[in-house]
């Protein structure tokens, strides 16, 4: 590194340090902590590859739901809330991304650009309809806050795309980052179980720890707000890790998968548990039909035995949770989901093309309280405050048929392209299982949008899938030209 570059780096680190000192005298501890972390991160960029560090740290940061509001609306449920101004987790990821690319350009001078493919275009089209749905929203505090989140997240996705383009060992960075994020969530979850309550991390997104119907111990939330989205987040990662645990000499991934499996069980999310077994069964079928030769049959047997032991250890709790589903006196999940969907359908019929506005369910349905009570047959605030537990119905409600179609097209392109490459890379098989599971889960819950962490992971997975597609297309082009 030349003297000039060293001077630039030193200037940046000193600027962050002195800003932290100034904030210390203003007694703003939240900002002090933030700037101290940026100083440490900047030093990390000097030691490690800045873009690899960016990808790795993004996966840790996105498990939180940091929200700094201007004139925030207390108790608004939907997306990441409602306010006249919002700064949160995606902005923090964007900030460390900018820092990382600055350091990378100082170290390496040039940055490889990306070429847009169908998946990238589908993301941009989806964002356009998100943008349009914010215009139709009567409650701008909710729609503008959510639009802020989506725009920043999309920028992050293309930063991840560029980062994947400019680094080596991208698969290893992704896998190890996901494992570390699982371990952090698992550690927090164990503390929640031990203390039988939240542990004071609400500023990072920790939710209320409470018992779920049918089980005698508290259901964990980590820093992902609720057992539902935490289970979907864990389901994503378990699908991605699964093909690697069958490889020879891959003990770290096996350990991470085991921790993740235990954590998924402790969420007591019935949908995620069912979808895990379905998606893993499909992955096993693909593995035995594929050309992968480094799969250990011994580890397959070990996996079956290990899973059996986990099921035996937690079996009674899991069985009680499922049995309770049919007890109408204590668990009305079936009825709630169906009724919620009926409410959504009634509203969608009136505005099928433009919808009611981004992140406006709670506002629209609440002000039409008497009508909803008439549809349902009784009054229940659950239906007013909580968005419909079906992502497809929710997008239909918010942005009309065009927003729904743009989302479905994006998911379709992801599944289609991953299926084409499923025999080329193990990571592709895991990504396919991940998107497949999410596609089904979306019919039963809104965990994808609840808090923002899961959809952030979806955009990261999308950027990685898009980068793999780029890589394959580049190789095909080189072969054709030769």
- Low confidence ranges: 476-482
Going by helix content, strand content and strand pairing, the class is mainly alpha
> Mean pLDDT across all residues, rounded?
83
Distance between the termini: 37 Å
Strand content: under 5%
Give the CA-based shape. Answer: globular
Give the helix proportion (percent range).
over 70%
Q: Give the SSE string.
A: HHHEEHHHHEEHHHHHHHHHHH
Number of strands: 4
Describe this entry's structure for a reader.
This protein has 482 residues and is mainly alpha-helical. The chain is 71% helix and 2% strand. The chain contains 18 helices and four strands. The strands form two sheets. The protein has a two-stranded antiparallel sheet with strand order 1-2. The protein has a two-stranded antiparallel sheet with strand order 3-4. Helix 5 runs antiparallel to helix 16. The longest helix is centred in the C-terminal third of the chain and has 30 residues. The radius of gyration is 23 Å and the shape is globular. The two termini are 37 Å apart. The C terminus is likely disordered.
Give me a quick take on this structure:
The protein is mostly helical and 482 residues long.
Keyword list:
single chain; two-stranded antiparallel sheet; mainly alpha; 482 residues; globular; disordered C terminus; 71% helix
């Amino acid at each position: 590194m030349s003297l000039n570059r060293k001077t630039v780096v030193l200037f940046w680190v000193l600027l962050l340090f002195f800003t932290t000192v100034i904030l210390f005298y203003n007694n703003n501890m939240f900002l002090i902590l933030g700037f101290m972390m940026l100083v440490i991160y900047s030093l990390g960029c000097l030691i490690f590859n800045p873009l690899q560090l960016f990808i790795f740290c993004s996966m840790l940061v996105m498990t939180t739901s940091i929200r700094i509001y201007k004139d925030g609306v207390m108790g608004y449920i939907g997306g990441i809330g409602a306010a006249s101004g919002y700064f949160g987790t995606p902005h923090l990821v964007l900030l460390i991304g900018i820092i990382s690319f600055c350091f990378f350009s100082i170290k390496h001078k040039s940055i490889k650009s990306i070429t847009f493919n169908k998946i990238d275009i589908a993301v941009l089209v989806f964002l356009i309809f998100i943008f349009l749905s914010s215009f139709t929203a009567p409650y701008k505090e909710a729609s503008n806050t959510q639009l802020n989140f989506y725009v920043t997240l999309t920028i992050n996705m293309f930063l991840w795309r560029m980062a994947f383009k400019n680094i080596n060992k991208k698969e290893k960075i992704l896998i190890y980052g996901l494992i570390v994020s699982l371990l952090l969530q698992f550690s927090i979850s164990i503390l929640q179980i031990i203390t039988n309550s939240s542990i004071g991390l609400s500023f990072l997104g920790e939710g209320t720890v409470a018992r779920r119907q049918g089980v005698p111990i508290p259901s964990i939330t980590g820093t992902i707000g609720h057992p539902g989205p935490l289970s979907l987040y864990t389901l994503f990662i378990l699908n991605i890790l699964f093909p690697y645990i069958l490889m020879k000499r891959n003990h770290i991934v096996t350990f991470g998968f085991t921790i993740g499996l235990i954590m998924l069980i402790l969420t007591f999310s019935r949908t995620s548990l069912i979808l895990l077994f379905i998606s893993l069964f499909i992955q096993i079928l693909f593995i035995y039909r594929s050309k992968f030769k480094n799969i250990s049959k011994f580890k397959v047997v070990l996996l079956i035995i290990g899973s059996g032991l986990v099921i035996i250890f937690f079996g009674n709790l899991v069985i009680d949770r499922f049995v309770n589903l049919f007890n109408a006196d204590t668990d009305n999940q079936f009825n709630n989901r169906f009724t919620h969907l009926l409410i959504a359908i009634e509203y969608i019929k009136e505005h099928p093309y433009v919808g009611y506005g981004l992140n406006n369910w709670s506002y629209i349905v609440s002000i039409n309280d008497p009508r909803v009570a008439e549809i349902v047959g009784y009054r229940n605030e659950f239906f007013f405050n909580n968005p419909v537990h079906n992502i497809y119905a929710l997008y239909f409600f918010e942005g009309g048929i065009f927003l729904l179609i743009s989302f479905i097209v994006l998911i379709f392109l992801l599944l289609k392209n991953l299926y084409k490459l499923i025999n080329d890379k193990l990571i592709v098989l895991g990504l396919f299982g991940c998107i497949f599971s999410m596609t089904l889960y979306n019919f039963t819950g809104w965990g994808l949008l609840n808090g923002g962490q899961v959809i952030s992971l979806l955009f990261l997975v999308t950027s990685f899938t898009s980068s793999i597609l780029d890589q394959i297309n580049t190789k095909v082009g080189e072969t054709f030209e030769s």
